[in-house]
Putative hydro-lyase GCM10011571_27860 (Marinithermofilum abyssi), 524 residues
Amino acid sequence: MNVANMKPEEVRAMIRRNEWIKPTSGMANGYTQANLVILRKDLAFEFLLFCQRNPKPCPVLDVTDPGSPIPQLVAPGADLRTDLPKFRIYYHGELVEEVTDIVKFWEDDMVAFLLGCSFTFESVMLNNEIPVRHIEEDRNVAMYKTNIPCVKAGRFEGPMVVSMRPIPEKDVVRAVQVTSRFPAVHGAPVHIGNPEAIGIRNICRPDFGDPVPIKEGEIPVFWACGVTPQVVAMQVKPDLMITHSPGHMFITDLRNEQFGVL
Amino acid sequence: MNVANMKPEEVRAMIRRNEWIKPTSGMANGYTQANLVILRKDLAFEFLLFCQRNPKPCPVLDVTDPGSPIPQLVAPGADLRTDLPKFRIYYHGELVEEVTDIVKFWEDDMVAFLLGCSFTFESVMLNNEIPVRHIEEDRNVAMYKTNIPCVKAGRFEGPMVVSMRPIPEKDVVRAVQVTSRFPAVHGAPVHIGNPEAIGIRNICRPDFGDPVPIKEGEIPVFWACGVTPQVVAMQVKPDLMITHSPGHMFITDLRNEQFGVL
């Protein structure tokens, strides 16, 4: 089964039938995958404000109408209650369960947010022959808490989380250029070169994900990371929050290139 | 008095003292001006969703916390109740009053939206020596209702309003390029060339603003227009809505170039 060449609706149908309960990386190549955050309406406005004020870590691709599980903008034929391989259920900020659909958790006042994910800009980097170390090494990307404050919105506040990729010196300018084209999926880096300047003490010890080696002639480059909104939302301890499980993303009908601003 | 070279905070202080009750065009050159829409919180989430789904006509620059008149992101020293030369008060979608400050209208649950405005990309065009006809002729820009539907959000729906600028054939490509850099202020055009294709019957009869001549060798180019959210909001007939008066904009602390994505 060649999942790389399947269409998004085919992948989603397979996931809906519980025939694929694995990470989505490498599926429906060229199509944009997204992070999922679901909150009740009473928190949704503050969370949307938070995303609007912090577009680099929280690039909004779609927000559903309250009560509707249909992402009208990015996949009108999909259902967010069933079309991701795995979900996480949090009560009061505590992970209590991991499930393959959320039909029985869905409520009439829920609002689902789909946020851009770094898979998109990594595929753009690879298309430009810029190496992506954690893909080469088949690990999770290295992620760090920083001292860069997000802009507060209501109860939502906290530091930005970044992901790091070691980039060969000769490719750093190109990496800035090609990722800048995609503000809807984190866009340009937030920092180049000096981890301490953004509050990272030990580059070998990421706060999330796996460490990757930085080779001779490479520079650590940092991008705003989609883990940020989840970490921040967790601190608010919402009565109920639902997210995708890490790596088990939602696959949209839109191609990566359609998010290029130029 | 050289208002073009004044700093934004100087201009706003003058406006706050009611010493300038005129349009803001040409003031604090190089700094971004913004449209204002104020709604009560019960409509604010839907309106923010509408903007998020329709970023070309409704590019959000800042949204205040409910009850706060301070635009923290774009001008933390400003007060939106006093720092615009003229405001319009609408009850149930009807214009009832035009005032120079809204201190007595301000309520604890109000949310203010600052939306990008075409002044910014016009200055970018001028810097690239692309002529802007209505500026040359000292008229208001020509605006038209189209058959392009906005994406609905709750009670907010309606067609996109566009502004038209006649561009010399040789400059059309460059006009697309330079405005694409600024998605926060309407960005790239939505249509080039054929008014009928987007539902405009008579190019000589704009729905808002003034007609401008299209000369030999020029092509009409259409951009999404910031009048769209006001027209759409008016149809919802909110109990109370406050906006800037046309041309009497809010001047932010940010320079136009700071909104360039690349």
Remarks:
- Chain A has two domains: 3-118+233-256, 120-229.
